[in-house]
């Protein structure tokens, strides 16, 4: 119990101990994932991320099968969209999570890459997404961790500083060590699992892939084997005291586990920690002001041409430059992000032509390889010519793996090289008009066996079912909604054009029986209200508008005033909005050798790829002969039917957690606004 002289942090200690003791599998669902990193000059002290990294390194060295599967929200559940001037909370939390997962030398991806480990072989991140024609319920996740289908930690604690350090928010969690063991499988080998923990994990994963778990419950109860007597080991029943056991970590690799790993000491004074926290907040406010001023000065210097050779970061701010470094396979720091070099899960799935078993279409990459996909469409790019999905530090045209800004250190492996072709395919698919038959969803739906969830780390399940379903769902949401966040969006310009598609979705479906002139007049009349429903709402981006809450300008000003404690109009004037002008220093990757033609249009418009499909479409049904509508026009009824047909093929709610969202802006220090830097980080971390 915490007292004035002792900080109570047993929840964090339980997480650390469970991860260290895990044999094969860790499954986490949490509202946040902020741990073991540095954001600006602020160190994130909870060590859950370090525990995962150390366990992965040990598994890699021992050659054992081990994996962590982590589900977190796509965006923090706040009111405003990402680019709103009052969305500081969202951007700061995303910044913290990026620095935890995949960007910067202290991220999980960078630490593993330093050891020569492909992060996706051991740890993967997912999210949940839903859709509907009308406002509905919001999907949320529980705060839980299941280890080896034997132990579960369930409670209120998030994975962030506020919940884990013990000297801030009050939290409650229960550790359930399951001694009712049944026969199971891990990595293709027999493995004893706990009845409760195993059933809970299987139920959650089934739900996320759209399986009716209630109808299977009674069947599962009947098929479960009888309980196995627990081994005659008093450790299964004695009181577990993580605080006392914490110092005894991994005797097999004492140097590996203890190096740079600092468990929090229980005797730390709670009062002194609070004083330190308050002092840190004050110092960060002053640091934020300095950073904002420095950025403004560097912007002005850049505009008048007196800052040559400095294209990234804030002049004179070494901390921000350090955050934009990663470890190469030689173990040396170099400029760039690990997320730029490590292929996304979608790129890997497309390049590997997964899933290997489908109920219908084959993977698009396989169809292209066999020459049955028809002519290739143009690559998706913005009106200014920026290629979608181009990573930070991408080569011109994104025709080679991303180089660090020191090309001599290029160390891409075959998998990273194959991701280039996969990105090109995904860009091309973004331009395909609705109704095109051969260029279908790049990753078809996998065959999902309701009884095939027992072994969560086998490649057959995890890669060909779990990951493939997440990729498949992500691609459908992208084609129908242009949903954000998304790995194809790496700059603010691309973000703006995705959001423009959202506005089109809100327009009533075009009525072919209405006279065109009357329709044009109605479009110009702001007071005209059509009874025809919109195509649908866009998931995740738009805040509370998804559940029927309308955010007004007054709401925005009030929120800004609450956040900064200053005049909201002044906040808007002084705040740095996303730089989407031609002067933006975010990497701008234009068309490369794979491009054909010189016409540039908004992705999804009829001018991109439409003419190249005319011959192909003439052989298809009358429905797909219909000309797709323009980028500013309401959708035709047949387009809406096609969208709903795609959405009906969504498998549950599982999607990929994007690791490259606005990465190009981040590398150029154009992601956070000036006002964001003024807010004390401990409010959000």
From TrEMBL:
Protein name as it appears in the record: Phospholipase D1
GO MF annotation list: phospholipase D activity
Listed GO biological process terms: phospholipid catabolic process
Domain (PLD phosphodiesterase) ranges: 136-163
Keyword vocabulary terms for this entry: Hydrolase, Lipid degradation, Lipid metabolism, Repeat
Sequence segments annotated as region (Disordered): 221-258, 307-362, 390-417, 503-547, 561-636
Enzyme class: hydrolase
Repeat recorded as keyword: yes
Species: Serendipita indica (strain DSM 11827)
Compositional bias (Basic and acidic residues): 309-327, 344-362, 400-417, 503-534, 564-577
Family of the protein in this entry: Belongs to the phospholipase D family.
Pfam families cross-referenced by the UniProt entry: PLDc
E.C. numbers: 3.1.4.4
Biased composition (Polar residues): 578-610
Known catalytic reactions: a 1,2-diacyl-sn-glycero-3-phosphocholine + H2O = a 1,2-diacyl-sn-glycero-3-phosphate + choline + H(+)
